[in-house]
Amino acid sequence: MTLEDEIKKNRFSRFQILCGEESFLINGYRKILEGKIIPKEDELNRLVLSGKEATADALAEFGMMPPFMGEARLISIRESEWFNQSGEKKELRKIIDSLPPTTYVIFSERKVNKKFAFYKHMSKHRDTLITELDKKDLRKAEDVREIITWIIQYATHHRTKISDRVARMLLERIGNDMYALSRELDKLIGYVGDRHVIRESDIEEIAGGVLEVNVYKMVDAVGRGDANNALGLYRDLINNREDIGRIMYLLGMQFNQMYLLREYEGRGMSSVDMAKKSGAPEWKIPNLLRMSRRFDLNRLKKMVSYWAELDESVKTTGTDRMVAAELFLIQALTNP
Fold first, then answer.
1. Furthest-apart CA atoms within the chain: distance in Å
2. How many whole angstroms separate alpha carbon 194 and alpha carbon 187?
3. Can you count the helices (H) and strands (E) in the chain?
4. Which helix (H) or strand (E) holds 158?
5. What letter would DSSP give residue 43?
């Protein structure tokens, strides 16, 4: 059974392990699980342990007790060291096996080492569900399906309906960055208000559009070496309070698409195949290729790599998104 199946049926494995590179998706599913396993207002039966706070003693002290005026106890363990350290951890495994059936544990872990004893023990436990949430390239049908399901669940969690078709429309317009998708969903949920239904017309009215065009112009200005125009467009976006996470995502996506298209062009691919493999709409291929030729192929590759480094820094060390976006722009403009 998958995590989506458990959420739909409202029946959950007692031990949930959410792991992988997509930290925002991990956090999103964790919040959904936490809200469904016990009521949000039930703080007496909820414990959060992060990093070094996650000890065997803390797990046992809270987890062994019966629920207080409720049906379950929930321990949310975030970025523990249990999955990334060698050693037997016999005491920890013994506690896990001794927890009463009313205690649920959610592990949120960016990295897990499948060779270590604790992971092997948890993976063999009959009441464990492991969900790996890595970055999606949207080239596989199952990747698209997973993110559309998440969009629908996110809206449902906020008492709003969105159909499969409208969720797909939002995904095509915004892309697969979970932070950007959640921000757009928050705007849409606030916009529809008491109607509690997101329609196609709402996507057209609220989600994306002008921002994509201006980021396209910004990258075009970078390619021409027109720093004043590029920085002016960036300042306009900031002054208009456009979402900085979305700006950063679109910058990275456009450089990545330009790099891929140049590579594919060198292999003699058709525009149809280029579109399928790069994720860029077919009608955009000629313009993106034209723009990409203003950059050396090696420079495009370096910019894509630098964007990935900044994105990782934002998600793991708390680097400010605006700082990351500005560092990326400076690098693009000063390294022709």
1. 67
2. 14
3. 16, 7
4. none
5. G
Q: What is the mean pLDDT of residues 36-42?
A: 85
Burial of 32 per CB tally in 10 Å (0-12, 13-18, 19+): middle
Percent of all residues in the chain with a pLDDT value above 70, rounded to a whole number: 92
State the Cα–Cα distance between residues 86 and 170, nearest whole angstrom.
43
- The DSSP H or E segment spanning 157 is helix 141-157
CB burial string 53-64: b at 16+ within 10 A, e below: ebebeebbebbe
Q: Kindly report, residue by residue over 237-258, the tens digit of the pLDDT.
A: 888 777 788 888 888 888 999 9
pLDDT in tens, 109-121: 888 888 888 888 8
pLDDT for 16-30, tens place per residue?
999 987 776 787 788
E-strand ranges in 68-184 read: 73-78, 103-109, 128-132, 161-162
d(CA 27, CA 23): 6
Q: Check whether 180 has a pLDDT greater than 50.
A: yes
Is 260 a residue whose pLDDT tops 60? yes
Contacts of 209 (CB under 8 A, 6+ apart): 173
Q: Contact at 8 Å (CB) between 36 and 76?
A: no
Structure tokens at 108: 């949120």
Residue written as token pair 């000890």: 55
**Range 163-171 average pLDDT:** 88
Residue with tokens 């590759």: 301
| Exposed/middle/buried for residue 25 (C-beta within 10 Å: 0-12, 13-18, 19+) | buried
179: which 2 tokens?
């932070």
Q: List the one residue out of 125, 182, 129 whose CA is nearest residue 157.
A: 182
Residue 206, both tokens: 């609220």
Report d(CA 267, CA 307) in Å as an integer: 25
Whether 299 and 335 have beta carbons less than 8 Å apart is answered as yes
pLDDT score at 168: 85
Cα(296)–Cα(256) distance, integer angstroms: 13
Number of other CB atoms surrounding residue 203 within 10 Å: 21
